[in-house]
Amino acid sequence: MIKVEVVYAAVDRQVLLTVAVPAGTTVRAALQKSGISLEFPELDLADCPVGIFAKQILDPDSRAVQAEDRIEIYRPLLADPKEVRRLRAAKAAEAKARNQ
């Protein structure tokens, strides 16, 4: 048995669970074994994007976990980061023009 962590950060709270799984367990199987869906029933563990230590795993159904891995469940972005930066830059330029 090896230990891995499963983490999820919702808007209002964060949960970190430690789970022991047999060596060779896939990322998706470890997620299901963790019981995180009891904490967050809105999560679709069969299709949610996941990563290990901030590196997205493209095929969690075949990638085996290793001891001490931290499996992260990602939620969708609320805003496109590029668009937010563009709006912030435009606002700063407008403020600078008003102050001159």
From the structure above, extract its key features.
single chain, 26% strand, 5 strands, Ubiquitin-like (UB roll), alpha+beta, 3 helices, elongated, 100 residues, five-stranded mixed sheet
Alpha-carbon distance between the two ends: 66 Å
Q: Structural class, please?
A: alpha+beta
CATH class: Alpha Beta
> What is the global morphology?
elongated
Kindly state the percentage of residues in helix: 25-40%
CATH architectural designation:
Roll
Q: What is the number of E strands?
A: 5
Spatial strand sequence of the major β-sheet:
2-1-5-3-4
Residue stretches low in confidence (pLDDT < 50, at least 5 long) are none
CATH superfamily grouping: Beta-grasp domain
Question: DSSP strand (E) fraction?
Answer: 25-35%
Total DSSP helices = 3
Task: Provide the CATH topology.
Answer: Ubiquitin-like (UB roll)
